[in-house]
Design the sequence.
């Protein structure tokens, strides 16, 4: 797979996020069903640009996805992790009440956030803390508009402190494990992926509250 093709796919992803931002604001009923496919495309672009051995990369990503999925299943079933919440239909097919795509989002945020943290500091604990801060910050943005776009619903309408503490602690632990056992990747693509998510959700939040 050539670098030219990989870059072309990245540019296409940027176009998808920009047009999706406009579409969510203008015609959410039309654009919402494409949300799971956008996340799948984001994961594909991220993985294609990594420099790791393919099998090692996939195994690491799948392990993080599985851990994230199990945590979400426990969270939905008990309300003891993030607080009482349920998922809507926008994120696609569900198993045990949890969209399958949400597990990919966990792995994506942890991988990308850990790469950024590692780029900024030469210490695994500090890098994991940076990753946890990034992941929790992005979750905070999404929480502001999640009910409006049928992502998920908390019992008291918006996520409480428990949700953010859980996000921080879980993403810190997963990032630390990722840095300990993998710790390699493309920081440039990680920055693009996280930047696009912040741009997308940040714009939606700003417009929604303006």
Sequence:
């Amino acid at each position: 797979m050539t670098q030219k093709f990989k870059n072309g796919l990245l540019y296409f992803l940027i176009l998808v996020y920009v047009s999706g931002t406009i579409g969510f604001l203008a015609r959410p009923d039309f654009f919402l069903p494409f949300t799971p496919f956008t996340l799948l495309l984001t994961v594909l672009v991220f993985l294609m640009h990594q420099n790791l051995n393919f099998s090692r990369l996939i195994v690491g990503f799948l392990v993080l996805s599985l851990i994230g999925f199990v945590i979400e299943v426990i969270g939905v079933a008990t309300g003891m992790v993030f607080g009482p919440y349920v998922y809507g239909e926008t994120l696609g097919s569900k198993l045990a009440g949890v969209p399958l795509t949400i597990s990919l989002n966990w792995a994506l945020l942890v991988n990308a956030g850990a790469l950024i943290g590692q780029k900024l500091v030469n210490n695994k604990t500090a890098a994991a803390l940076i990753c946890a801060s990034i992941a929790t910050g992005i979750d905070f943005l999404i929480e502001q508009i999640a009910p409006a776009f049928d992502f998920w619903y908390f019992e008291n309408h918006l996520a409480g402190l428990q949700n953010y503490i859980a996000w921080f602690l879980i993403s810190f632990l997963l990032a630390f494990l990722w840095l300990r056992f993998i710790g390699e990747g493309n920081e440039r693509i990680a920055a693009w992926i996280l930047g696009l998510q912040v741009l997308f959700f940040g714009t939606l939040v700003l417009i929604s509250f303006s």
Q: What stands out?
A: The mean pLDDT is 91. Strands lie at 85-87, 94-95, 98-99, 152-154.
